[in-house]
Amino acid sequence: MYFRRPIVLFGDSLTQFAFGEADVNLGWASLLCSAYQRRVDVLNRGFSGYNTRHALDLVPKLFTRESYDDVMPVFSTVFLGANDACLPGERQHVPKEEYAENLTQIIRSIRQSSKTKGDEDFPIIVITPPPVDSETWRRELGLYEYFDRSNEIAREYGQAAKEVAKNTNCHCLDTWQLLNGSILETYRQHLSDGLHLSESGNRLLFEGLMALIEAEFPHLAPSKFVDGEYAKEGLQMEEALWSDLC
Amino acid sequence: MYFRRPIVLFGDSLTQFAFGEADVNLGWASLLCSAYQRRVDVLNRGFSGYNTRHALDLVPKLFTRESYDDVMPVFSTVFLGANDACLPGERQHVPKEEYAENLTQIIRSIRQSSKTKGDEDFPIIVITPPPVDSETWRRELGLYEYFDRSNEIAREYGQAAKEVAKNTNCHCLDTWQLLNGSILETYRQHLSDGLHLSESGNRLLFEGLMALIEAEFPHLAPSKFVDGEYAKEGLQMEEALWSDLC
Asked: Where in the numbering of this chain does the SGNH hydrolase-type esterase domain appear (chains A, B) (predicted)?
């Protein structure tokens, strides 16, 4: 097979920039690529600035039925809400109730697209928006008059995402909690510009995701190298090791 | 389309580890993913320890004809020879003449597999093995008695790879040169363990690759963001910008 089973990362800029940014050079998707080397392809489907309204329209295109015939994803992440949570009146704002409905619909739509081979399914992991350091972010945008985001509202949208995950039998990674969203002095250092992730934020998100996979889906974690060989558990490396070839 | 046109990186550990290693955390493939974000999927087909004999067997599997129907790669890199260049008597060693023949055959075989839609083709970039700091490498392996690699032989295999690239109408990225293989004090810092790339080595390789793409195939470089918008030249981002959607 030319295409390996992929991990599909669907979301906004927090996903699009997850291969690393110029001033960070390390992203949670890159760390994931490294952890899963020679086992899966990580497909980044992050679209900067998108809210759940925009994302909903994209699902049928990104997760087409045909392409699943041989390449059912290992798992998919859905990381949306940071833009929906803009304050009312902002162009990207989506009311919280509609956000929850859209997110539910996105998950259903991804699931529908995966039902080509019997009733096979793959895990979908909902990721909540990170905390927002709104002072830093408005300086970044050059907004001196007003705020377009708030940490408290990011938290509330995250709560809504957790509810959606529960109601749709998905797992949830609570990034707001992971980055310690209740203590500004702590979470500020995990953000690069008040909204996006710094190196430590990227690491925390990656580690949280791997911990979730290992706890809930150990068969989908990469096989571990222990005592000079790869464990039989977890996703195996593609093709023989060179030492078995010569 | 679910799968984007990919960039396919084919090679040994210098490719397999190119999403970053634990002690480096930055890889040339990750930098490439970031540069091409929202435009292509970077498929890492690196197989640690493989020489061109092993790689030759893999080509028909990795580059199957069927999968090209809709997803002709943007370009492919072939980065092999670091293992062939082990000293005679070592398990991975392949004589230089056979190395050149195998590399030629690998390139032909990749080209054949791409000829499904008329005579379309995609660029193949041959990458030469980096310099070897054999003192550091043998300490890394715990070899105190003898050397299994030499910088001079790595250079010679690189020369052979350049010849092959020329004879097969491929482009060549001379990593030995890029990392300043003639000056130990310089290239030593571009290696993490005497054989693999450090952060600066990864950066140099990435920058060299991008410079080659921009010089030789500017239409395959990612579109640039200039004066608040993306240039019409180069590979465009997938889907509309959010600011055009709302």
From this structure: 9-204
DSSP A60-127: HHHT-SGGGSS---SEEEEE--TTTTSPTTSTT---HHHHHHHHHHHHHHHHHHTTTSTT----EEEE
For CA atoms A91, A92, A96, A98, give the dihedral sign.
Answer: positive
Residue of chain A minimizing CA distance to B113 = A2
Say which residues have a Cβ less than 8 Å from residue B151's Cβ, sequence separation at least 6: B131, B132, B133, B134, B181, B184
**Could you report the predicted ipTM of this complex, rounded to two decimals?**
0.94
Contacts with B63 from chain A: Cβ below 8 Å: 2
**Which chain A positions have a beta carbon within 8 Å of B66's beta carbon?**
2
Residue B2, pLDDT > 90, answer no
At the fourth CATH level, the homologous superfamily of domain B6-245 is SGNH hydrolase (3.40.50.1110)
CA-based nearest distance B165→chain A, Å: 24
Residue of A34, A113, A199 for testing the chain B interface, max B β-carbons within 10 Å: A34
Residues of chain A in contact with residue B25, where contact means CB-CB under 8 angstroms, are 26, 31
Domain boundaries, chain B: 6-245
Q: Choose the weakest-confidence range: A10-19, A172-181, B111-120.
A: B111-120
The alpha-carbon gap from A41 to the nearest alpha carbon of chain B, in Å, equals: 6
